[in-house]
Structures are given as structure tokens and as C-alpha cells.
Design a protein that fits this description.
Number of strands: 16
CATH architecture of the largest domain: 2-Layer Sandwich
CATH superfamily of the largest domain: Bira Bifunctional Protein, Domain 2
Helix content: 25-40%
Distance between the termini: 37 Å
Number of domains: 2
Bound molecules: adenosine monophosphate
Oligomer: single chain
Radius of gyration: 27 Å
CATH topology of the largest domain: BirA Bifunctional Protein, domain 2
């Protein structure tokens, strides 16, 4: 393939190098373990979806759909979108494959890249990575509680301390009209002072006005009526029960009646976890309940509600790194196998293979080099030992094990070597 040496990655999209992916994998490993404990199974949906899916699910008036999606016409004219989030896809798949006919709740998790054409900055990218989960087929408050308890466990497992849970209830279709009317009324005298986008939104979707980040508009937002005063009996009781369960389990949170999240599908419970180590992009994760989303995408009326969350892996690993004091070296090999000359290359390759089968991560040094150069390489790779294989060692069926830190060395047979390298344990 002909390439130009000047080609770089697209703005806002970055390469995750081994020192980055080591952290992503650590996070993904913890998440998978915890998802399994809570009985979640993985779903993998396509990164391309019909553009209409997000327009319908996320909402035309949101920043995501209005300004940030990568949407293009396919060769046959079909409008396609690179997914900006995965809840819409998970719910589409839930309906398309009639997962709601399976017994019990459907618990799905996913992980992968999402795409939003936002202004790039630290912690905000145009291709970013999310891990998320959805519980579909029920709307009881204990389901919301379990999801939040699971997130607490994940934060603990990742060593992240000091994340703050922010909680709200954004009501449902039943109480929205009254709240919208109250918002419109409160906003009417202030509208001329607000930015053009929000003047329009005040008419089309007043809840979205609460998303406004323009500093000058904040005093206006702060004085708007609270959604918590407009919840219908069912939403109020749902929220009260969730709060009782959280209080009972000692899960603390801050109530924020202005927090509405940037997607239209949310109903009742909405939450975010914020973290101080992240600077301006301080949302580690967010989520909420979306009863009625399945119906808006074509599910029959008897299909139950749903709740989910998505965490930003890019930000989560920043918090993990901060918690670990910024140390983030990828693991590296346990040992470097060094054939002294080309004649020892085949037995050295065979030794490396056997060690790997025993679970030890090893790297090979090229043969016919000065031993000093190979030892330097081993140290730079972070290996604990070099395994030297010369003509004598091959004849004696032994290996010279050399500890790099101390320089001490010893000829070992392979059983003793394997024991020293901890073969059989994880590499
Ligand atoms: P959302 O899908 O908007 O509810 O966002 C859920 C989480 O994804 C946020 O709390 C962030 O951690 C993360 N996130 C959203 N947008 C971006 C982005 N452009 N870059 C990095 N992380 C993001």
C-alpha cells in the first residue's frame, strides 16, 4: 500500500499504545469479572447503524444527534451512523432477536469504540471507548439499586477512591408535560438573554435547556423549577424506594435536580459518577432508566423497562492511574531467552515455547550478539532474568539463569528453571 510519511491519525482520534492498552485491559478485566458476578452476558453489536436509530432513541434535539454524529450516505443511499453510544443498539438487538421472550431479566454488557464529533481535549475524544451494561425487562427500584451497587464494586476493584455519585429522577412521559409547561413559563422572561440554541430548545424540548453549559446562563438555570416537584406518584415512590435502598446499604450520593443527562431516552432514575482527578471532563460514567425506549423502537407494549450505564474508559483509566500514583508500565516479559550463537537458535526457540506453554511470558534475543548487548536489552524490557543458552548448556541440557538486578547466575535444569520462573502461575 502506498502511504505518505506525513499521514497522522485523525484529529480527536488517537492510537492507544501498549502503555495505554495495559491499563484498558486491566479495567476491562475487572469489569468482566464483576459483570459475571451480577450475571451479565456480553453483546457485540455493529459499529455502523441506521442513522434513524439514534434520531429516534437519543433524540433529534440532543447535542449528540444534532451536532456530533458521523453520518454518511452509503453507496446505495442508505444513511448510516458510526455509533455515538451503544444503548440504542443494545435495545434494537433486544427487540430484533426477541430477547424479551427469554426468562427473567436480560442483563447485557458491551465494550468498544464510540464516535462523537466533539471538540477534542484531555479526556474528550472523537473516538473514545465505553464499557456499559443494560438491564432490560423490568422497572423495579431494586434493579436500579443493584446496578449502582455493581458500579461501586467496580470502582473499588479498580482502586478508584473519591468518586461522587450524583443522582436525580427525570420523571416520565406522564409528568413531563407539566414540567415542560413550568419550564417554559419560567424561561419566557429570560429567553432573550439566552443563547440561540437554547431559545429554540425552550420551545422544542425544554428539558434540554438544563444541559446548557454557557456560564452566563447558569444563574437562569439555577433558578428554574425542580423536576422533583413535578414527579407523578409512581415516579416519586420509585425514587423514594431507590433512595431507601441506597441509604440502607450505605451508598452515599448527592441529589442534583438539575442533572438531566444529554440523551432524551432517560426516564425516572438518572445518575453520574464524577471524579476530581479528571479536570473539566469530570464525568467518569453516566446512566439511567429508560422505560419506554423499547416501545419507541418498535417493541410490543408488554415489554418491560430498562436501565443502563456507560463508563468512559479513557477517563476511567486516568482515575486508575491517579490512584496508582501514576505508575503505568506495561508488564513486560519475565525473562529473555538468549541463544549465544545461531547454532543454539533452534534449542532456544524450543525452550521459549516450553516456558510459554507453562504460562511464562518470555521474549527472544537475536543470536550472534555480544552477551552484554542482550543483557542490556533484557534490562530495558523490564525482564527479571536472562536465560543464556550456549554450546555447553545445550550439551548439559541446562540453562544459565542470570538475575539482572544482582548479576548472580546459576546453571539450572529445566525443572528447576521452570520453578524459579513460576511456571504454572500466571506470567
Ligand atoms: P454518555 O454516553 O454521554 O452518557 O457518556 C457516558 C460516559 O462516556 C461519560 O461519563 C464519559 O466518561 C464518557 N464519554 C462521553 N463522551 C466522551 C468523549 N467524547 N470522550 C471520552 N469519553 C466520553
Amino acid at each position: 500500500m502506498k502511504t505518505d510519511a506525513g499521514i497522522t491519525a485523525i484529529k480527536g482520534m488517537r492510537d492507544l499504545l501498549p502503555e495505554d492498552t495495559a491499563w484498558f485491559e486491566r479495567l476491562e478485566g475487572h469489569a468482566r469479572e464483576i459483570f459475571a458476578l451480577y450475571n451479565f452476558d456480553e453483546i457485540r453489536t455493529p459499529v455502523l447503524e441506521p442513522a434513524e436509530l439514534f434520531a429516534r432513541a437519543v433524540g433529534e434535539e440532543t447535542d449528540i444527534v444534532g451536532k456530533e454524529m458521523y453520518t454518511f450516505a452509503d453507496r446505495d443511499g442508505a444513511m448510516l451512523t458510526l455509533r455515538p453510544e451503544a444503548t440504542a443498539s443494545a435495545v434494537r438487538a433486544y427487540i430484533e432477536h426477541r430477547l424479551w421472550e427469554r426468562p427473567g431479566l436480560t442483563r447485557l454488557f458491551y465494550q468498544g469504540p464510540m464516535f462523537r464529533r466533539e471538540r477534542p481535549q484531555k479526556g474528550r475524544y472523537r473516538q473514545f471507548y465505553q464499557i456499559g451494561a443494560e438491564v432490560l425487562g423490568g422497572d423495579a427500584p431494586w434493579i436500579d439499586f443493584e446496578l449502582l451497587a455493581m458500579l461501586r464494586m467496580l470502582l473499588e476493584r479498580c482502586g478508584i477512591e473519591g468518586a461522587e455519585l450524583v443522582l436525580n429522577s427525570v420523571g416520565c412521559a406522564n409528568d413531563r408535560p407539566r414540567y415542560h409547561a413550568a419550564l417554559r413559563e419560567a424561561l419566557a422572561p429570560r429567553l432573550p438573554q439566552m443563547c440561540a440554541d437554547y431559545q429554540r430548545r425552550a420551545q422544542t424540548n425544554p428539558l434540554r435547556v438544563l444541559d446548557c453549559k454557557v456560564p452566563a446562563d447558569q444563574p437562569i438555570i439555577a433558578a428554574l423549577p425542580s423536576i422533583l416537584d413535578y414527579l407523578d406518584d409512581r415516579c416519586r415512590e420509585h425514587f423514594a424506594e431507590l433512595r431507601r435502598l441506597l441509604d440502607g446499604a450505605g451508598i452515599s450520593y448527592r441529589l442534583d435536580p438539575r442533572m438531566v443527562r444529554g440523551l432524551d431516552y432517560y426516564t425516572s432514575t438518572a445518575f453520574e459518577f464524577l471524579h476530581g482527578a479528571l479536570g473539566a471532563q469530570n464525568a467518569l460514567l453516566g446512566g439511567g432508566r429508560y422505560d419506554g425506549l423499547a416501545q419507541s423502537l418498535g417493541a410490543p407494549a408488554n415489554v418491560g423497562g430498562g436501565i443502563g450505564f456507560a463508563l468512559g474508559e479513557d477517563r476511567f483509566v486516568m482515575a486508575m492511574q491517579a490512584a496508582a500514583g501514576g505508575t503505568g508500565q506495561p508488564p513486560g516479559p519475565r525473562a529473555l531467552v538468549v541463544p549465544i550463537t545461531a547454532a543454539q537458535l533452534p534449542p532456544a526457540l524450543a525452550l521459549a515455547e516450553r516456558l510459554r506453554r507453562g504460562g511464562v511470558r518470555v521474549e527472544m534475543a537475536p543470536p550472534d550478539r555480544k552477551i552484554g548487548r542482550s543483557l542490556e536489552l533484557a534490562a530495558k524490557l523490564g525482564a527479571e532474568a536472562a536465560l543464556l543458552l550456549g554450546a555447553d548448556e545445550v550439551r548439559e541440557q541446562r540453562v544459565t539463569w542470570k538475575r539482572l538486578a544482582s548479576g548472580e547466575q546459576e546453571k539450572l535444569d529445566e525443572t528447576a528453571l521452570a520453578a524459579r520462573l513460576g511456571a504454572g502461575r500466571s506470567a
